[in-house]
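Fatty acid desaturase domain-containing protein
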Amino acid sequence: MVSVPGGSVLQNGERVASEPVRAEMHSASEPPNGDSKDKRSKQIVWRNVILMSLLHVGTVYALFLIPKAHPLTWIWSYLCFVITALGVTAGAHRLWSHRSYKATLPLRLFLAAANSMAFQNDIFEWSRDHRVHHKYSETDADPHNAKRGFFFAHVGWLFVRKHGDVIEKGKKLDVSDLLADPVVVLQRKYYKTSVVLMCFVVPTLVPWYFWGESLWNSYFLSSILRYTISLNVTWLVNSAAHMYGNRPYDKNISPRENRFVTFGAIGEGFHNYHHTFPFDYSASEFGFRFNPTTCFIDLMCWLGLASNRKRVSPEMIQARKLRTGDGST
């Protein structure tokens, strides 16, 4: 959702200018006037309401299956959760939305597959909407505007049509860099098929095939329970991390530092920092501390699969704290 701001950052120890977001995008037609834009944002999408309700009912049922499942199924389900999370945090978010580091083709293919396991819209749509979120945060053009309340920012935004401003502003964003990536285009073209395979079929079949878990337990734990938890963890970044916590970097914006979200979202809860410095690959001042996503990207760089990590200098961070922070640490 953001056009990467200007200024200098540290890239592999050297100060460089942050990259501009490039490109053009295609979206749904915009409503003709302001009134219809507002009416559109109140139109309930009943299909989403019903499906999301059934998903959460299934998740409650899945909790009762945990004691009956093989311990290896627990481990596999958690591994799937981590892969799912990385598909969003290291993939759609830090790589494709913010271009905060570069990834080789094998790593991009892995992250695209992991993103399909996450089933939170394809990389193109996720990244486009996220850039809109950053550029127009807490306005009607923000897809999950936190000023409309916790429930709306968490999941309610999926229950109604997008506000017309989201569509209108989104059309004006430059996103050709996404369309120029063949991995993004490929995933978008075969998204439904990849979601069925990565989000449901593979997580379900592995426990059944390798250690004899029942397909029933495998489906509800490795697919339904894992998927629902990963969704809610991501949503907490939009809701809780925009409402609860301190603002040591910029007290004039809504996003906060939230330790609970940081833990659940494998490093995405340093949200006041992230909205202040969205081009930093670590999304945090503290590097790999409390940040498994940063550890993963660092490991990929060590393996030669990633490079060009962008960082903010300590001097820039301290200056920003003194200028706009709330005085907390």
